[in-house]
């Protein structure tokens, strides 16, 4: 289902990328997938890829976008009387948040699992700042000098 964002373009400037992302997020096409939180800083994307082998699948990360593609060899196509399991080529993109890294991928029971982890650099982590009490004698000296 596509939404018409034209009314918003009349009163906003610079939000075109946001509307593109909303359009992409609303696309619930093929293949189906799950995104789950597996820990405080870990996630897993599971994509249903029945009928695809490891050599048919590819996962790339570029500029914070994880792209998973699948394309089966045409030579392997059989003559089906009925084909209920989709095997068409696909491309699925996931926008990754800042500091989210792909830790690995594995194909298991018709699902491609991509494990992700949020790795926040030390300089970005919150830190406690020690608060020191002012020395009472130093304050008295400052008061007398003034």
Structure description:
- The chain is an alpha+beta fold.
- The protein has two domains: 30 residues, no CATH class; 115 residues, Sandwich (Immunoglobulin-like), CATH 2.60.40.790.
- 17% of the residues lie in helices and 32% in strands.
- It has a four-stranded antiparallel beta sheet with strand order 1-2-7-6, with no helix packed on it. A three-stranded antiparallel beta sheet has the order 3-4-5, with no helix packed on it.
- The longest helix is centred in the first third of the chain and has 11 residues.
- It starts with 5 loop residues before the first helix and ends with a helix.
Oligomer: single chain
Continuous helix count: 3
Outline the low-pLDDT stretches. Answer: none
Instruction: State the shape.
Output: elongated
* End-to-end CA span: 73 Å
Main pleated sheet: 4 strands, antiparallel
Q: Over all CA atoms, what is the radius of gyration? A: 26 Å
State the total count of DSSP E strands: 7
- Sheet/helix structural class: alpha+beta
Number of domains: 2
CATH fold call of the largest domain: Immunoglobulin-like
Strand order of the largest sheet: 1-2-7-6
Q: Beta-strand percentage?
A: 25-35%
Order of helices and strands: HHEEEEEEEH
The overall pLDDT, averaged over residues, is 83
CATH architecture of the largest domain: Sandwich
